[in-house]
Amino acid sequence: MDFILFRYTINLLWIFLLLGGCATNINVRPLYQLNDIISQSSSSYREPSLGNEWLVRLTRNNGREKVQLVDLRSKRVVPLPGINRFDAQPISVSVNANGTILAVIHQRDDKTELIVYRRNIGSIQRILLEPRGIPRRVSIDGAGRVLAVQVSRDGKWDLDLIRL
Prior knowledge:
The chain is α+β, with helices and mostly antiparallel strands. It is about 20% helix and about 50% strand.
């Protein structure tokens, strides 16, 4: 009988701890000053991805979407020469922790392509999917060494991990 009472008491303690943990005030709040600064440069945003001190997103200006990288320390947009092609429509974007590598899915000439942009040297590398498929979303790890890519193949969604 004592064992059952002990077990019941322990279970009640766990419930109170879990409920108490859910009710704690973590003090989550928006970064208003930074939000105001980064929202001034475009009319529409989507697909945000954060590195340590970098924000990459897709912006829409004058009816055209493009990849935009923001340095959160200086609160400035960083130039990305060669990545925003006139004949390509970006779909998904991700940035590594130190902001040097961007993974981008874009559509060009009725083909959807996965590319890796190395900002420090300004190079673009096209990544081929095997087996073939249509990439939809991309995420790069903090070190910039592995991509997670959502891919459509034969009407089903797959997830490919690609080591760079």
